[in-house]
Design brief:
alpha/beta; Leucine-rich repeat, LRR (right-handed beta-alpha superhelix); five-stranded mixed sheet; 2 helices; disordered N terminus; disordered C terminus; signal; DNA_repair-toleration; LRR_N_plant-typ; cell wall; secreted
Length: 157
């Protein structure tokens, strides 16, 4: 006989496993969109047949218990590209996104506001900027540090 605790635990486990798959797919899609040396610098970012689909052992990725990505720290990885293909909504537990000292260009997508648990955002020393017509909105509830390229402006909600 299953109790309500067993049912909720299995639902939570299933949601975490599904979230891990979404995170892996989102990271691999973004990696594929990057140019230059990113493919070799992020060589640990790959799916290995028969392995768990967790990105927790990948370079620059740190996870909380349960295997969900909590930190992406790719400082000085010589990344070239945009954030356009980064699926922010796949990262429900991301509290730190640190992409400083790279060569990211283009706009900071407004979808970055989907990172509801974000505490630290560092996009400094890149060429990315918020869109002129639609400012980037971040929820400052837990935000401790936000660092973005010079001349960029963020709007807090």
């Amino acid at each position: 006989m299953l109790t309500s605790n067993h049912v909720s635990a299995s639902i939570t486990d299933h949601q975490q496993a599904a979230g891990g798959v979404l995170e892996v797919e989102a990271l691999l899609k973004w990696k594929k969109s990057l140019s230059g040396q990113a493919q070799s610098l992020l060589s640990s970012w790959k799916q290995v047949p028969g392995s768990d689909k967790s990105p927790c052992t990948w370079s620059g990725i740190h996870c909380i218990n349960g295997g969900s990505v909590s930190t992406i720290n790719l400082t000085s990885f010589q990344l070239k590209g945009t954030l356009d293909d980064f699926n922010f909504s796949s990262f429900h537990n991301l509290s730190c996104l640190d992409l400083q000292h790279n060569s990211l260009i283009g706009n900071i997508p407004p979808r970055i506001s989907n990172l509801s648990k974000l505490e630290i955002l560092n996009l400094g020393y890149n060429h990315a900027k918020p869109r002129q017509q639609s400012p980037v909105r971040l929820n400052p509830a837990g935000a401790r540090k936000v660092e973005i390229p010079q001349r960029a402006s963020l709007e807090f909600k």
